[in-house]
Amino acid sequence: MLALTRLQKVEDRAAFEALDQSGLPLAAMAGDAAPLLWAAQRLAAPLADGLRQLFANAAPTGRLERPDLFLGCVLRLAQDLGPRLDFLQASLHSVMEASDFHGHYHISAEFARALREAAKQLLREEKLPALAAAADRELWLTWVDSLIGFEVKMAAPLGISSPLAQRRGDVPLPLLRQSTLSVLGERPEWMDAWLSAESAAAHKALQGLLYSPTSWDPAPSLRAEDWPAWRCEFYPPVAAESVVALLAGQLMPRVRYIPQPEVPHAPARARVCARRSGDGWVHGRGAERAGAARSEPCPAQAAPARKKAAE
């Protein structure tokens, strides 16, 4: 392990330095931008081979309608075996401490990352092509629900503890971009099948809300209001409040799991106009150092105002 890590420090020096400058406290939060330790990959390699054999589509335990078997096994391996590798952390620390990278890496979290990468590879090679061929919308939703549950529970083995996310059943945002759900965005046909399944399920739920026998009765909120003005001016039916609850409680939370294209981040100095100094316009944090300068509108903000005044 020590030899592999020392070699990787040399081979991936630029990537390690970029991670150190990113300010992220843990490699798992940076996704592909943080090199996955080769030592962790080697430790997880026999298990990855076993997962491919055990959960291949042709295997009895690889049934497409039971994603919980595959994902539950990966999760159990990360939860049970990861902590048993903690004794290696001191050795990893001794290799990394000279380069200030040791704070970003923990061997058990890297082991969990390696297992999750193995799961993503099996999704690409076996599961998602089979799902696309099956063309079963309910099966797509079953897999998406299982993947969401898997990612929520994998946050702890990956070293990210978010009590709020756990209570809400959410995947912590730092883990979402490189999650197993992100694999669905790698091919257009997979994304189309997933979104089609979500759309059909939402349409079915909406139809049930709009066409039930009590859909257009007074909404429950009206019974809590005694003012005549409320009853005259605001008369929402049951369907209206039910649709709002469906959107806020079910549909919108699922939207955050849909893979989004990468958006390049603008430099901080180009995002915030603040104060003008003797040398020109100061942006972002530089504005704090130019506190003595007089405060004026940024040209980018002042131009629309001047145009409006002229009109």
Explain what you see.
The protein is mainly alpha-helical. Helices cover 59% and strands 3% of the residues. The protein is built from 15 helices and two strands. A two-stranded antiparallel ribbon has the order 1-2. The protein is elongated. Residues 263-308 have low confidence and may be disordered.
Topology:
Elements lengths: L1 H10 L1 H10 L15 H17 L12 H15 L7 H8 L10 H28 L2 H18 L8 H6 L4 H4 L11 H23 L9 H4 L4 H6 L4 H18 L17 E5 L2 E4 L2 H4 L9 H12 L1
Antiparallel strand pairs: 1-2
Helix pairs in contact: 1-5, 3-6, 4-6, 4-7, 7-10, 10-13
Strand content: under 5%
Judged by helices, strands and strand pairing, the structural class is mainly alpha
State the end-to-end CA separation.
70 Å
The global form is: elongated
Mean pLDDT: 74
- H/E element sequence: HHHHHHHHHHHHHEEHH
Number of strands: 2
Number of domains: 3
For the sheet with most strands, the description reads: 2 strands, antiparallel
* Radius of gyration over C-alpha positions, nearest whole angstrom: 26 Å
Strand line-up of the largest beta sheet: 1-2
Are there runs of 5+ residues with pLDDT below 50, and where?
263-308
Helix content: 55-70%
Task: Name the quaternary structure.
Answer: single chain
Please give the count of helices: 15
Biased composition (Low complexity): 289-304
Region (Disordered): 279-311
What are its keywords?
single chain, 311 residues, mainly alpha, 3 domains, 15 helices, 2 strands, elongated
